[in-house]
Amino acid sequence: MDLRVSILPTPFGESVVIRVLSKHVSLNLENLGLLPRDLEILERMIKKPHGIIFVTGPTGSGKTTTLYAVLSQIKGADKKIITIEDPIEYQIKGVTQIQVQPKIDLTFASALRSMLRHDPDVMMVGEVRDYETAEITIRVALTGHLVFSTLHTNNAAGGVTRLIDMGVEPFLVSSAVECFIAQRLVRVLCERCKKETKLTEEVLRELGVTNLDLSKVRIYEPAGCESCRHTGYKGRTAIYEMLVVNEAIKELILKRASSDQIKTKALALGMRTLRQDGWQKIVKGLTTAAEVIRVTQQEDLVE
Prior knowledge:
Layout: E1 2-10, E2 13-21, H1 36-45, E3 51-56, H2 63-74, E4 81-85, E5 96-99, H3 108-116, E6 122-125, H4 131-142, E7 146-151, H5 158-166, H6 170-176, E8 177-189, E9 195-197, H7 201-207, E10 219-221, E11 233-244, H8 247-254, H9 259-268, H10 274-283, H11 289-296
Parallel strand pairs: 3-7, 3-8, 4-5, 4-6, 6-7
Antiparallel strand pairs: 1-2, 8-11, 9-10
């Protein structure tokens, strides 16, 4: 195990947070929790010769693990892959990984410029935090590179407005970005002790589920046993929202449409929201309604 430890002094002692990273985590796309349709979309996106794929979500939502799984899938002797990260969470064999060092001016932006001289086919930028990094990342994609990166936004459509708010021109966003993927982590029900339950009308409304024959659906809740240390949960999986930047979405980006307008259009074209994807995992008996609502909180719902 690798442990990332952060300590803060308080009046009553030290506050410690430890992020546990397994060196033997299985980094492949099949284990991420993607439903078949979303897995097919992602596999299609990562085969593109150039463009940007952004993974969005708050801290601790599994964005980096998703990107590592993607890099593990596409790496090979015929591809040169370089990453710039802060920090490097997992070491991937066959991938050149760079750690940000602000003290020596090795920032995301300066490293990106240097990376281009190393003739990469695929690049991963740990996070786009400012205009300079965003602009260079987009220009790198437009010059024939496939780039992966992350943004801190609540949903996939919010990624568009975040880039424009940073100062990136809409025509650059529409030209360079192939896909925005929002994600959250939900706890997985313990298979040994989960028990059937019924959902109230209020919970169903909050999930955006209407006109459904619940007699054909089996819903579960946590119970608790020795196997799961009486928590009712064992392990985690992700729920996803995939916004593919097609011609219709590009038109809205060029018009500087709001994230709500982009989301509404994407839903009309078949996109599934985080909560809709979460509902699919509730129906499969993987997680609970409470978990999906907890991690998505006040996501806007469009039925």
